[in-house]
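Q: Could you write out the predicted structure for this multi-component system? I'm mainly interested in how the pieces pack against one another.
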Amino acid sequence: MVKHMLKHHAEAADGVFHALADANRRAIVDHLTRGPATVSELARLLGVTVAATVQHLRVLQASELVRSEKAGRVRTCQIDPSGLRRAEEWLRLRRTTWERRLDRLGDVLGESADERRSPPTNTTEETRS
Amino acid sequence: MVKHMLKHHAEAADGVFHALADANRRAIVDHLTRGPATVSELARLLGVTVAATVQHLRVLQASELVRSEKAGRVRTCQIDPSGLRRAEEWLRLRRTTWERRLDRLGDVLGESADERRSPPTNTTEETRS
């Protein structure tokens, strides 16, 4: 069940990590969290051409990190929270799977330590008699 | 303040997204969340050479997603939660910054709608008189 969920999320989060592996694309996401921006504003922010910015935006849109709308000749971009949530969920699921395993391990080690501390019942009886 | 925090996290999460952009490296992380494994076990899992696996592990270790220990000739790998947490935090901070902005926008739009719905005070007085 967990294995199936992990597999599903692995595929779904695929493009998001690729998209965020690039510093310019992370800068676009950073900027848009504070409000929408046009393509030319983003190009100015990055100090790259509009064509290069459009390429980055395509990657971000493909992994649902950004969405955009054209009104007349101006394209305005804004955050699409789906991609952020999907990547967050991918990481959270793995971190909690790992933490639960560690908790179970801690419980087992705790039980063995208790067994070592308290002497077996028959030893106690021998001491008493 | 938020801008500074965003910048700090952008740099810190840098390598983690690059590391997770690769399907084989994500498969290693997936596998290790369920327990430690040796390098040869991971190589078998991926169906690649030990040398290629070692390369992937270097990238994962550099971004604190995996740690490893050598005992004799066997290197055992396990999850390092630091990298997972850092990437999760990077995403969460951006998502919540965006959500807070949306909430504030909703409040402002709600207020304007209220103003439109309730007629101005002097109009009410005129109706009464």
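A: Regarding packing and overall arrangement: The two ends of chain A are 54 Å apart (CA to CA).
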